[in-house]
């Protein structure tokens, strides 16, 4: 795999283009593109041959945001224009959204997507609009409404985000993709981590000699598979995977467990709820996983509740 091409590398390359990329790339000092953050973009994985990050003027493919900063509630639009001499293949549903925090990029959008192929012919264009509105976050429900060309999000704090797509020239190998990524800065009202509104009761309990904060939801009655989700604070020497607010708030069980641990000062928390399955912020949280949130490490687990 070739190394991603950062903004600094592109500026150094000037108008020479990028070897191995199916489309020519050059800087253009006269571009009216909004000034982007000077920061390297996220890694899109091994199948990406090159990453074009925050580059002002592209010869061939032009991928530009409508602004370099926005305030929630509000929207930002990313436009892709094909000015090359070849068709560009991409999945219009396959966009990605990351957040930059303390030197690391975190995926904050689910990656379960349909897989159609969209071909952008020479002279054609595509647009993606990202709308962010944090109103009603405390009411729970679906936080994201991803779509092919208009995605709506709640639960995003201040910070630097990166929106991007990937694809390949019709004459190139689909395993050698080019990623086009743009960063933008979001300003939003402060958001706190609170339990999901489905929680109906919270009480302290003595479990095997240890004090445990136990929460129950209003979905237990009639649940086909009642489950105990558990979080235990550990000593911090296990190198757990770091997670951030924007990921946590998209998982109801994890959100409730961590909110109760933080707000009530609990070292052990159990949430009794119905069984939930599926991907959480791009991965599945498994039994025994060590997660680091706000500088504290926790062990996550789940089990079926006894009849």
List keywords for this structure.
20 strands; mainly beta; 7-stranded mixed β-sheet; Immunoglobulin-like; 3 helices; 307 residues; 8-stranded mixed β-sheet
3D architecture notes:
The protein starts with 6 loop residues before the first helix and ends with a strand. The longest helix is centred in the last third of the chain and has 13 residues, at 252-264. A hairpin with a 2-residue loop joins β19 and β20 (296-304). The chain has 307 residues and is mostly beta strands. The protein has helices at 7-13, 245-248, 252-264, and strands at 48-53, 61-65, 69-71, 74-82, 88-90, 96-101, 104-107, 118-120, 125-132, 144-145, 150-153, 159-169, 177-187, 199-207, 210-217, 226-233, 241-242, 268-274, 290-293, 296-304. It has two domains: 7-187, Immunoglobulin-like (Sandwich); 199-304, no CATH class. Helices cover 8% and strands 40% of the residues. It is built from three helices and 20 strands.
What is the topology?
Blueprint: H1 7-13, E1 48-53, E2 61-65, E3 69-71, E4 74-82, E5 88-90, E6 96-101, E7 104-107, E8 118-120, E9 125-132, E10 144-145, E11 150-153, E12 159-169, E13 177-187, E14 199-207, E15 210-217, E16 226-233, E17 241-242, H2 245-248, H3 252-264, E18 268-274, E19 290-293, E20 296-304
Parallel strand pairs: 1-13, 3-13, 9-11, 15-18, 17-19
Antiparallel strand pairs: 2-4, 4-9, 5-8, 5-12, 6-7, 6-12, 10-11, 12-13, 14-15, 16-18, 16-20, 19-20
